Description:
- The complex is a heterodimer.
- Helix content of chain A is about 30%, strand content about 20%.
- Chain A is an alpha+beta fold.
- In chain A, α6 packs across α9 (about 190-205), α12 (about 435-440) runs antiparallel to α13 and α16 packs parallel to α19 (about 640-645).
- The longest helix of chain A has 28 residues, at about 80-110.
- In chain B, about 80% of the residues lie in helices and about 0% in strands.
- Chain B contains four helices and no strands.
- Chain B has helices at about 1-20, 30-40, 45-80, 85-105.
- In chain B, α1 (about 1-20) crosses α3.
- Chain B starts with a helix and ends in a 6-residue tail after the last helix.
- The interface of A and B includes residues 40, 706 and 758 of A.
Amino acid sequence: MRQNISAIVGLLAVVAIVILLDRPLGSIPALGPLLSPSEGFLQNRESAKDLSDQSLPPILEDSTSIVVFDSLLIPHIFASNDEDAFRLQGFIEAKYRIWQMDFITRVAAGRVSEVVGPRAIDFDIKQRRKGMARAAEVSVAKWEESYPESYSNVQAYVDGVNAYIDQLQPKDYPIEYKIMGYAPERWSALKSALFFKHMADVLCSREADFELTNARKILGPKIFDQLYPDKILTPEPVIPIEKVYDFGQMDQQTGVEAFEQPMIGLYDERPFEHYPSGIGSNNWAVSPSKVKSGHALMANDPHLPLRLPSIWYLVHIKTPEYNVFGVSFPGIMGVILGFNENISWGVTNVGHDVLDWLEVLWDPKNSTYTWDSTEQKVDWRIEEIKVKGEDPVIDSVAWTAYGPIWNITSAEGATSAIMRWAAHDVPERDEMSVFPGLNRATSLKEAAAAVQGLHSPAQNFVMASRNGDIGMRVQGKLPLRPKGSGRMISPAGSRYTWQEFIPQDQVPEIYNPRQAYVASANQASTDSTYPYYYINGDFRDARALTINQTLRNGKDLSKKDMMALQLNNYDIEAHSFIKTIIDLVPESTERSLLETWDGMYNAQCKTCILVEILKEEIQELVYDELQDGDLEFKLPSLWRLMELIESDKKHKIFDLRTTPEQEGFESLLHIAWEKSVSEWQSLGDIEWYQYRKSSIPHIVEAFSSFGAHNITAGGTGKAPNALRKSEGPSWRLVVELGEKMDAMGVYPGGQSGHAGSKYYDNMLEAWQNGTYYPLNLSQEPSEIKGAVFTMKSETIDAD
Amino acid sequence: MLISALKHMAITILLGYLLMLMGFWWGVAPGAAVASLLVPMGQRRFTLITGFVGGLLLWLVWSWLLYQDGGQLITERIAGLFGIGSALMLLIGPFIGGILGAVSALAGNLRIK
């Protein structure tokens, strides 16, 4: 009897324990499965088997394909046809990065609540309204209808990804799935399109319409125009001054200024947050005449949010028709940035403003809105947002012919505005042929033709060829804006936003310029002779100035010089600022430090910290007016401030609102100086990298042990080595285009997206130290030294 | 007594292992219960101890072998998420296996007449 009682107790206990451990408890994942040796975290180890020869996926046309994984776990794909190459690329990218591919596209699609629960609902609602998911659907429909060849290439990639997913057992799910408690979903052309739209979001959704509208209201038109001039002309535009634009231009109407429209008051929040500053890039190419070896040189380092798993994935693809090596985006087929046997190419973000907010009168009940004084119908899109553990949330979004309607608030009331974004447009060109086209291009002519399929996000393509040609093309569907339009919130109507686009044969480009180099670092695309109006993005020209000066003055350049320039920590803007104010700074040891400072943001620099604090304190005092309201304001350009300091130290902006006196710049500087010096001293004897506190977090920042912290490298946002807190050079490539392509590259992470792999972050140290790995464009599998393992058909092996 | 204990544990481990391979992480539970059915351990405390050791051994040895086969990095990273060290991380699982084995062994003593 007693035995039975204890047995029943035992039975109940077992059942209770199993049930308890079989499900998540709050934010703790199900511990039973996660800790069990059979399906838990130990199954996410990198076993000996993982690094041994493996068989090919069964979906290939030609089973004689081979993939060799080298000592960095870079796959070298040798395939006999395009589609097999893409199938293999898809399979392999899924094998190493499927969770990242899945999660990033969920974020873009506004499907995070499905796996994370109700706390992501607001985020998902905004993402749906932003329209990446809808734009992706539109894209895929167009690919299927108009570009069957590209569509079938996409399908080959998709099939490869799914071949991997379909054979995955739960014990082999990447660790993030196990922690978050969900399963991988099959891939599709829609997801590839979503990834593309995600990159558009990262690269070309930036505007400052709310901030500038507020600033203009607070400062008044006169001072606003002085602080925020419409055109930031740089002496070193992307397409150099020597370029002559000799085409008959299209008419550009003049927009009417936004403030005519009654404003509801200061906007107190943005509809959605900006991506952080620091997203941009450098690229350049040098003609043989400036190079010691007589070969062209090319360099590219894109600046993106730095995360683990890394956004980029190195891959080498050889087919009978082309041989290409570089980084890809897991989720999209082809090599995005890299080189082949004849050419190399790279991109920086164009950064033109292609997102307008247009205040609109509309009637939700009758589903109409007013545009150019006529009533038009909105198209309702019902967004169903699934929520883990709860009922789905339904949100209805009103789409006009120009974009979705958002609610906008201020302290004094609410209004509605259309979000007009070029990335919503139906593709008019074969965007999925751009990178495959570049991969197989044999000349700059072919490369320039291939890139014309890219409409959004617009990119400055640098190109170089083994025969010595270099070129730069500002590629995109660039809006033909009414002059003066788009900087601020405007009324909904044709006068205030673009109607047409700059024709593809009139976008700024140059080949083999007299100056014997081309360079872009997100600065203004052109000089004032370019006939079309555009708003350049967020970037001033600091990096561009440094890069241009180095290349302009350089001769007998080499690959080493290119790497040194990518790693250059000089911030010309900060240095110029200090030089502008130094005579007004009180005599002191700190002033002497500033006088002798060389403008470099090296890791061990201490003076840099004082410079950063001083810049911040000065601007906070100068722009005290703008601190009204809840919306963070956009800082005027530091170059503009320097000009004002030199020309008018008694300008109204140098007056503190809170005091009856008129301060003038010198007084402000003294106040800021005291504050800055004491703040600097209170930090102790720390170095620049300790102040900047850079890190490379996991995509889910809460998984902090999966990220890389305490980055010790030098660099700062306005130096070519543009490392900020968690944004910076996500990839570095330098190519010397000689008889053989001589390429070196590195990125801050590793080829494997699996946190249990030693290839998860093994390149990080080299990246921090400024070293690069050689990237050899091999012709045969046997050329690859130190290979870790091979993927091939089993029948070949059976001897 | 010792022989019975060893037989009990062997059944727990074998059955548990097979069930876990088939996708049931809680496999030592039925394993230990069946072991008790086939090899009664007499007193409660012997049942509990034998069941515990059986479950513990399976999870521990299996985890140890996996750890040796490239499992160091993932253990370190996961332990970091939980804010503990690798050693503790490797031991929690086996402890759970032990508990499962213990109470299931007890349940297996159910005799319905």
